[in-house]
């Protein structure tokens, strides 16, 4: 046998084999057979992935720790068809009835289902401890939360968001979720409006209790927070104000929230709110969900949504819009690279955009919230922390620092004359300690006092002042120019402090303080930074459009 095997030879001819293979492929029947087999295999793989949410069924993935999917899953990861773009996640809103729920569960277009939870008989003498699916002002619903959850778990293919209409329903609902935690293999968002927003009433849900109970009873979720809102025929001047977003910021940090957070905002109030909301997202590492009320005017939302798409990365913004054309517009314009497609005011604001990387934070760092910056604005809350430009400049008529400051009275404290306000220092030789900055100080007081004076400098002291009537908005635009022999400080009182309106030309007459500098003050040939500092902690200062420009 061994001799026989040794005599066996294999004739390997690559060219001949390729020729034979080519003839087979050229055969019509063979070609049809291969196409049919490949098509069937492709369809089978597609159906398998579509119905199982991946190559491995979700039930199998649950058994593998590294692949386990649960209620805290990232929506964009859970639904790979989103392509990490929040605009590709489609929502079914107010699925509070059996009919709406079933339609959403078996719709191939829907990824996330939203529904409202309250107690049966909510707010009445007949209130029970049975959570039902309904939205206020209704006080009851036909579909119980138990049955609603049964259907969602059985489908196991849609994520869901529960909107709590009252705090009473929270604990009993979370207990039911916790009891069935192992069965929930889809993303879960838990939402409540916890702050008063534009035209909104007092919130029915206390933020502290809402977050504490969720952290204790069902922490594996995405936390969704929002503001109450209302409707009006003209909302062009309304917005999510700096006070509103700062209140939300402090809730997140006071409650030490470290889970994924989404802030829910109404589309009709976006026009003057994008910078505030972007600042909030940047400083809390969170995302945003834009929702639209059926009564809101679609036309006025279009430009605002484009502006938001321009500012927010695709993975940071979700959209629950009732108007299909607006949703399509958002998807088509999700990545806008040119301001030419936007309101002209956006481009004007971009030209004055704050650059955090051009500044250095200095002072005491014990209070983590004393200085909070993003590309949209910087918020100063303590006199012990200040900002210094990384670049330095010699006195030059072509160099100027300009910006806008909005004073917020968040502590309800009476201002101190000559001290409560913002200072801009030039020609500073020593600035390592916030109490002993040496230089020329340009001061804007919340009471309307404008001052240019020497501060801890050798030589002859000087001081020039002017007074303006403060506006109701407590908002000022300023320009500082150190021309060498003369320093020019220009301040304009703004009637409003809207984020885009400030970029428009205005007819207000500015106050101008020109000071001839003493020759012995020195520093003509030496480079110095610009310094911006809050002079006391009785106000919060929001600075935006803060730039150093060369003319």
UniProtKB/TrEMBL annotation:
Keyword Transmembrane helix set for record: yes
InterPro entries the UniProt entry points to: Menorin_C (IPR057489), Menorin_dom (IPR019356)
Transmembrane residue ranges: 34-51
Domain Menorin C-terminal: from-to ranges: 396-499
Stretch forming the signal peptide: none
Coiled-coil ranges per UniProt: none
Residues covered by the Menorin-like domain: 85-324
Entry keyword set: Membrane, Transmembrane, Transmembrane helix
PANTHER family from the UniProt entry: CONSERVED PLASMA MEMBRANE PROTEIN (PTHR21184:SF6), MENORIN (DENDRITIC BRANCHING PROTEIN) (PTHR21184)
UniProt family annotation: Belongs to the menorin family.
Name of the featured protein: F151B-like protein
Record organism: Mya arenaria (Soft-shell clam)
């Amino acid at each position: 046998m061994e001799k026989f095997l040794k005599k066996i030879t294999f004739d390997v001819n690559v060219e001949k084999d390729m020729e034979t293979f080519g003839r087979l492929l050229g055969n019509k029947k063979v070609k049809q057979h291969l196409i049919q087999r490949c098509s069937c295999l492709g369809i089978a793989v597609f159906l398998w992935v579509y119905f199982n949410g991946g190559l491995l069924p979700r039930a199998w993935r649950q058994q593998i720790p590294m692949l386990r999917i649960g209620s805290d899953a990232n929506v964009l990861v859970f639904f790979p068809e989103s392509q990490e773009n929040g605009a590709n996640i489609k929502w079914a809103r107010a699925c509070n009835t059996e009919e709406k729920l079933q339609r959403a569960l078996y719709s191939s277009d829907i990824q996330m289902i939203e529904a409202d939870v309250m107690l049966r008989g909510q707010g009445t003498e007949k209130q029970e401890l049975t959570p039902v699916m309904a939205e206020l002002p209704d006080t009851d619903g036909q579909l119980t939360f138990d049955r609603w959850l049964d259907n969602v778990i059985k489908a196991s293919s849609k994520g869901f968001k529960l909107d709590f209409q009252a705090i009473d329903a929270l604990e009993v609902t979370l207990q039911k979720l916790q009891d069935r935690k192992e069965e929930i293999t889809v993303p879960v968002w838990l939402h409540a409006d916890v702050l008063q927003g534009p035209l909104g009433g007092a919130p029915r849900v206390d933020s502290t209790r809402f977050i504490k109970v969720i952290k204790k009873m069902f922490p594996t979720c995405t936390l969704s927070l929002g503001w109450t809102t209302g409707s009006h025929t003209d909302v062009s001047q309304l917005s999510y104000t700096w006070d509103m977003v700062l209140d939300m910021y402090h809730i997140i940090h006071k409650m030490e929230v470290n889970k994924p957070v989404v802030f829910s905002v109404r589309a009709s109030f976006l026009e003057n709110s994008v910078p505030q909301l972007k600042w909030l997202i940047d400083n809390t590492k969170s995302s945003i969900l834009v929702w639209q009320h059926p009564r809101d005017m679609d036309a006025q939302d279009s430009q605002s949504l484009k502006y938001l798409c321009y500012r927010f990365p695709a993975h940071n913004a979700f959209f629950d819009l009732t108007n299909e054309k607006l949703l399509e517009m958002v998807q088509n314009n999700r990545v806008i690279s040119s301001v030419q497609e936007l309101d002209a005011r956006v481009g004007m604001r971009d030209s004055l955009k704050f650059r955090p990387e051009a500044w250095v934070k200095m002072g005491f760092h014990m209070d983590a919230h004393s200085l909070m910056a993003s590309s949209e604005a910087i918020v100063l809350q303590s006199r012990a922390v200040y900002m210094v430009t990384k670049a330095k400049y010699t006195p030059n008529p072509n160099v100027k620092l300009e910006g806008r400051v909005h004073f917020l009275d968040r502590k309800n404290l009476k201002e101190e004359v000559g001290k409560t306000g913002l200072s801009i220092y030039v020609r500073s030789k020593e600035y390592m300690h916030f109490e002993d900055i040496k230089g020329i100080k340009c001061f804007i007081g919340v009471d309307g006092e404008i001052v240019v004076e020497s501060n801890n400098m050798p030589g002859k002291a000087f001081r020039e002042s002017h007074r303006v009537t403060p506006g109701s908005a407590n908002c000022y635009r300023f320009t500082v120019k150190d021309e060498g022999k003369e320093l020019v400080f220009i301040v304009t009182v703004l009637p409003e402090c809207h984020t885009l309106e400030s970029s428009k030309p205005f007819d207000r007459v500015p106050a101008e303080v020109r000071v001839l500098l003493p020759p012995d003050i020195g520093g003509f040939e030496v480079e110095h930074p610009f310094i911006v500092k809050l002079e006391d902690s009785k106000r919060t200062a929001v600075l935006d459009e803060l730039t150093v420009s060369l003319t």
